[in-house]
Amino acid sequence: MPASRPELSLVPLPRKVSPRPGRFVLDQDTRVRALPGAEGAADLLRTLLGPTTGLPLPPSAEGRVVLALDPQLGGLGDEGYGLTVGPQAMLLRAARPDGLLRGVQTIRQLLPAEALSGGAHGISWELPCVEISDVPRHPWRGAMLDVARHFQPVSYLRRYVDLMALHKLNVLHLHLTDDQGWRMPVDAYPRLTSVGGHRAQSLSDGVAHAGAYTRDELRGLVRHAAERGVSVVPEIEMPGHVRAALAAYPHLGNHPGRQLDVWTRWGVCDTVLGVHEEVFDFCRAVLEEVMDVFPSPYVHIGGDECPTDEWESSPAARERAAAEGLAGPGELHGWFMGRMGSFLVEHGRRPTGWAESGTELPPEFTVMTWRDPSHARTAARRGHQVVTAHHRATYLDYAQSTDPGEPSSQPGPLVPLHAVHANEPVPEDWAPEEAARVLGTQAQLWTEYVTTPDRIEYLTYPRLCALADRAWSGGRADWSGFVERLRHHTTRLDALGVPYRPLTPRSLATASAGTAHPPR
Description:
TIM Barrel; six-stranded mixed β-sheet; EC 3.2.1.52
């Protein structure tokens, strides 16, 4: 179908596409009829198409573009939609508002690519007549962006969300804190950003780096994302990856009198939070402010790569472990995460964390497994909700090829386009009850070696297109079909000014490369 109808080369692939003869034309006389509950999707359609096409698409009870919310369409779930484009009218239906938002993105892809960018003259805004019935395979289809290592302005985060939404991704996981920077404002602890938001230099380029968001900026980002059907999941690292916090407030560490700098190196820092009660007061206060800004039901609190050396050598930590009936300081990690997880549960949230083995987090946690695919099944068998994030298939900060012109990247295995598209969050041999616990998957972009939006997008696209395709469409990987659709889809990326890695024989190669097992 894409070869004969390239405008139907949609990414991700809808569940069912039935071409029909004819074309539907949007023009200055086109009106939009939004039935009750569909007003948000109609507003999004105008917001996205008005500036680029010059069409006002005003509301009208007689509109030929009809958006309808129908809760009786139970088979479409929360995000499915039905789209019928005929020569005289277009009807978009869904059972839930998010389904209408997904359908709006399909309408954008059906239009000429110039409808994404604007500035074109003499373009006829036509859509091919088609009937589409579409339901996603997984409810969690995400992308994680690390703004702790290299801060990005909120204006770029809005663009990042826009690109995600075009590909029907629905979770922006925002990595806000780490050893190298703290970007989340916390009124009760202002030094977290005034001190923790600055580092003297970066290992990759020797340049000083700083940045932090305001609460208003983050709330605005949450609204912008919600209007596009994207949830923003905040991540505040604990009890490791906290060097920036300890630079601001040394008394929260295991050596209260020690003055630390915000870390200027990459890798895993051995400084971790202490386990005295003042630390938990701090963590609760931070998470209360996080929950005030981010309405997401999921709150990520890190949890991995937490060296226990400081606890092992700390009399206070050893005493705390003994007082809590733990076998030793090594068990303080699970105890710590359990306390903070319970706090989030008490506030109606779902604690989320990185799982290094699938067995170390308390049962109430939603876990992201990244070290080995088998860990996802281990976690599912323990009863966890699981988001798969295997580094060999979802870490976009790793190089895409060995071409000498490739930008500097995280040392480790190659993650070529094919590896991303071949990744299956739920292998066929899993038991139904195990598969049911997998929410979905997401890509990760850690930014030790990624400083600018252009670099972010070069590393992200088209690999994120591949992840979106599999996360939404599911089923067996049709690599050749995806490549055929992607070749047309790159015209859309071009229209949006995305500096993606070009499709070349090397980038489309299917042979795997690299065997290293790098740290997160």
